[in-house]
């Protein structure tokens, strides 16, 4: 999406890169299918069973945040829905805690917890194809976003408005809501989700597949709804998603999903810390918030512009604005106006680079090792308006503290709103539908001996940013909770959340009781659980 990948910019100062099933035919409006109907096609990969003595084990247990390295008894690499069913049934039969991995980008230990004894790795399920039976595009949960973009675009000229890191797996990204550079134009990924195929475990302990769609007559519709932002690892294991935009008539695949722009204007703008005082810092952050408030509505020319202002620690040297403007002749003008508005009164001159790229080339730009060599802690928040003076003072303090030397600490301000906010809060499990900014707090480091210092810094930073609301972004006229795809177990810790508002409300707001009812029906034995999982109602 830009001349630098998102996470490369976030952590550049430290060379860090930063985010099933026996088919129940009777319950499906249309029968579930196992994959594209290709006679004599290749058999699926796996199942592959990898234990601690297998040379593949270290790679399969080091696919996420290096703070957490799992020690499961077994990793099952699967290539089909049937293999997922068998793996889940084995876990239930043997009483082993089970977790699923698609891309491996979880910021907490939901997969790599010491309690997890069987990991189901979806690396073999990477199909992306048009399903004429459902008049929708099928995406297997192990496919990376880069593969989803490539296949949808080259095959049919369409896409889903997902994230900017091509190595992220579709499985968890979609279940948590999914947003990216095109979301201000086309909404969240889940706004285009038509159906899911999920491996669940019933009260008797039997693993089975369930197909659930958004069709009003589908008796399993609530299970579909829970996967429109309810988070991964809560209700079962998604093996396949189907996408088709609501209200699109006909069955022409090239018209069933948004068409991305032919090209984008990719940009990076840097404001140096050198010469910037607290007043200039406050102006830069405040200007970004003001721009988002003014241009957070749908249907405007500015909705084509997506940017992230990365406010970095002083040792990093610069604050960076990265992003893109989607196509059209006025892209340079829109960027000019954006940079001018942000820089007003800052007092230092920015350095700007820009490049016109074909959309797909921009979407597929890689991001190094994707953070997997680094220890990470992240936090998140939504804003309905810009920062308060107290928040600006807190941000300046923690980004310039002399007692903390790490350059790889930041808070990113992401443009939000636009088409996202045209959807009602209860229409999907993603409840935050009137915010204009999304925040991403980050600390990255390499040495385990430094964990205490870095965790303390980011926790204190976050606490002070929300000092008026108990240390967390409780939903009010300014804040709107947090994002489950940037999970943070501190929200469930009364030492850091003194607001009296439970973590579940921060993530799901009024949608949580409904998610609990879905959980109670489809995972009554609480097989699929983690530190922030939905609890049965």
Automatic annotation (TrEMBL):
Native source organism of the sequence: Plantactinospora solaniradicis
UniProt-recorded name of the protein: FAD-binding oxidoreductase
Residues covered by region (Disordered): 32-57
Lineage, broadest ranks: Bacteria, Bacillati, Actinomycetota, Actinomycetes, Micromonosporales
Assigned keywords, A-Z: FAD, Flavoprotein, Oxidoreductase
Cofactor: FAD
The UniProt record lists the keyword Flavoprotein: yes
InterPro entries membership: BBE, FAD-bd_PCMH, FAD-bd_PCMH-like_sf, FAD-bd_PCMH_sub2, FAD-linked_Oxidoreductase, Oxid_FAD_bind_N, TAT_signal
PANTHER family in alphabetical order: BINDING OXIDOREDUCTASE, PUTATIVE (AFU_ORTHOLOGUE AFUA_1G17690)-RELATED, FAD-BINDING PCMH-TYPE DOMAIN-CONTAINING PROTEIN
Record family assignment: Belongs to the oxygen-dependent FAD-linked oxidoreductase family.
Any Pfam family the entry gives: FAD_binding_4
């Amino acid at each position: 999406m830009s001349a630098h990948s998102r996470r490369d910019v976030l952590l550049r100062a430290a060379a860090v890169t930063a985010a099933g099933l026996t088919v129940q035919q009777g319950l499906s409006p249309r029968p579930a299918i196992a994959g594209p109907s290709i006679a004599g096609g290749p058999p699926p990969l796996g199942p592959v069973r990898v234990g601690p003595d297998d040379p593949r084990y270290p790679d399969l247990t080091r696919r996420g945040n290096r703070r957490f390295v799992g020690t499961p008894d077994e990793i099952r690499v699967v290539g089909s829905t049937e293999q997922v069913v068998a793996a889940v049934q084995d876990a239930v039969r043997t009483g082993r805690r089970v977790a699923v991995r698609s891309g491996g980008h979880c910021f907490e230990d939901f997969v790599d917890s010491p309690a997890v004894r069987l990991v189901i790795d979806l690396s073999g399920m990477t199909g992306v194809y048009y399903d004429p039976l459902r008049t929708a595009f099928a995406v297997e949960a192990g496919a990376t976003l880069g593969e989803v973009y490539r296949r949808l675009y080259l095959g049919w000229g369409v896409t889903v408005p997902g994230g900017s890191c091509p190595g992220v797996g579709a499985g968890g990204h979609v279940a948590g809501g999914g947003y990216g550079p095109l979301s201000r134009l086309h909404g969240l990924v889940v706004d285009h989700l038509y159906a899911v195929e999920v491996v669940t475990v019933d009260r008797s302990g039997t693993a089975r597949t369930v197909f659930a769609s958004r069709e009003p007559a589908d008796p399993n519709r609530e299970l579909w709804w829970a996967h429109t932002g309810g988070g991964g690892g809560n209700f079962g294991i998604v093996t396949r998603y189907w996408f088709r935009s609501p209200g699109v008539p006909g069955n022409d695949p090239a018209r069933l999903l948004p068409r991305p722009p032919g090209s984008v204007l990719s940009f990076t703008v840097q404001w140096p810390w050198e010469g910037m005082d607290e007043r200039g810092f406050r102006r830069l952050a405040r200007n970004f918030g003001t721009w988002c408030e003014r241009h957070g509505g749908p249907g405007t020319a500015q909705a084509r512009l997506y940017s992230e202002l990365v406010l970095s620690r002083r040792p990093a040297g610069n604050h960076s604005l990265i992003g893109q403007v989607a196509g059209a002749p006025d892209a340079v003008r829109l960027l000019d106006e954006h940079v001018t508005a942000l820089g007003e009164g800052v007092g230092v001159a920015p350095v700007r680079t820009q490049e016109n790229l074909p959309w797909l080339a921009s979407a597929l730009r890689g991001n190094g090792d994707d953070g997997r060599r680094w220890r990470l802690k992240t936090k998140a928040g939504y804003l309905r308006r810009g920062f308060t003076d107290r928040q600006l003072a807190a941000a300046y303090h923690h980004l310039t503290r002399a007692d903390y030397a790490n350059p790889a600490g930041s808070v990113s301000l992401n443009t939000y709103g636009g088409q996202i906010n045209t959807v009602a809060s209860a229409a999907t499990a993603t409840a935050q539908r009137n915010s204009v900014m999304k925040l991403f707090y980050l600390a990255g480091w390499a040495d385990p001996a430094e964990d205490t210092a870095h965790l303390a810094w980011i926790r204190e930073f976050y606490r002070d940013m929300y000092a008026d609301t108990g240390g967390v972004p409780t939903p009010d006229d300014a804040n709107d909770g947090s994002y489950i795809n940037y999970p943070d177990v501190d929200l469930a810790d009364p030492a850091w959340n003194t607001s009296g508002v439970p973590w579940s409300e921060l993530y799901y707001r009024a949608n949580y009781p409904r998610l609990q009812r879905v959980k109670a029906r489809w995972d009554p034995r609480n097989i699929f659980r983690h530190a922030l999982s939905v609890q049965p109602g």
